[in-house]
Amino acid sequence: MPADVLVVSCGIFRDELAALGRAGKFPWPVRFLDSMLHMEPERLEQALTALVQSLAGQRIVLLFGDCQARMDLLASREGACRVKGHNCCELVLGREEYRRLRREGAFFLLPEWTARWREVFRERLGFVTPESARLFMQEMHRRIFYLDTGVVPVPAETLAEIGCYVGLPVEVKAVAPDRLADAVRKALEGFNE
After folding, report:
1. 2 pLDDT above the threshold of 60
2. Domains of the chain as residue ranges with CATH
3. Which of 4, 12, 93, 193 sits CB 3.0–4.6 Å from 98 for a disulfide?
4. Any residues with CB less than 8 A from the CB of 51 and at least 6 apart, and which?
5. ∠ CA 110-67-56 to the nearest 5 degrees?
6. What Rg, from alpha-carbon coordinates, does the chain have?
7. pLDDT in tens, 37-95
8. 31 CB contacts (<8 Å, ≥6 apart)?
9. HSE of 148 in the Cβ direction (CA atoms, 13 Å)?
10. What is the C-alpha to C-alpha distance for residues 96 and 103, in angstroms, rounded to an integer?
């Protein structure tokens, strides 16, 4: 494992990576970007590009999904690579389980966005009333899965509030945050090829 590796991650994984680090399972230093940049792909691209350029000379692993159109271009820069995964939820669920649940109409929430759900739904997505949220969410989804990484207590009251707001049942699904460390290790294998 190269000693000069730095992980650049979406802030959605801040608590999970901290817990993995404390457990000795994530030995790499991390720089985080605010997860709300996902809602503004152009700003995300600008922030990532600036950060990657400022880290020239280091090996960088991007711990992001396909959150903006030029993610692969950033990952193709010398000294950079990216974990494999369409999005953050796929990274912690695994590809097959993610696809299976998506086919069943699942919408996913990770702990960080669950804590910020009002900002996500009302401010960022524009669902200022339960009716607008229900109209959109129920057209595309059948249920919500809260992906419990085991790092914070399951926010049962908040999940009930979200379910009521969007008119969908909410289920809790345990996931292993260790998959994040595994994804970084696999990405680093590309540096040795």
Report:
1. no
2. 5-89+177-192 (3.40.50), 94-174 (no CATH)
3. 93
4. 8, 31, 33
5. 110
6. 17
7. 888 888 998 999 899 889 888 899 999 988 877 778 778 888 889 999 899 999 999 99
8. 6, 7, 8, 9, 51, 55
9. 12
10. 11
Q: What is the pLDDT of residue 192?
A: 54
Q: Would you state the pLDDT for residue 1?
A: 45
Distance CA 36, CA 48 (A): 13
How many residues are given for the chain? Answer: 193
Question: CA 7 to CA 51: how far, in whole Å?
Answer: 11
Give the model's confidence band at 3: pLDDT under 50 very low, under 70 low, under 90 confident, else very high. Answer: low
- Segment 14-21 shows an average pLDDT of 97
- Alpha-carbon 5 to chain mean position: 20
Task: Check if the beta carbon of residue 75 is closer than 8 Å to that of residue 62.
Answer: yes
Taking the C-alpha atoms of residue 151 and residue 169, their distance in angstroms, rounded to an integer, is: 23
Q: What residues form DSSP beta bridges with 81?
A: 61
pLDDT band at 17 (very low <50, low <70, confident <90, very high): very high
Q: Which residues pair with 147 in a beta bridge?
A: 173
What's the rounded mean pLDDT across residues 24-31? Answer: 96
CA–CA distance, 126 with 112 (Å, rounded to integer): 19
DSSP 5: E
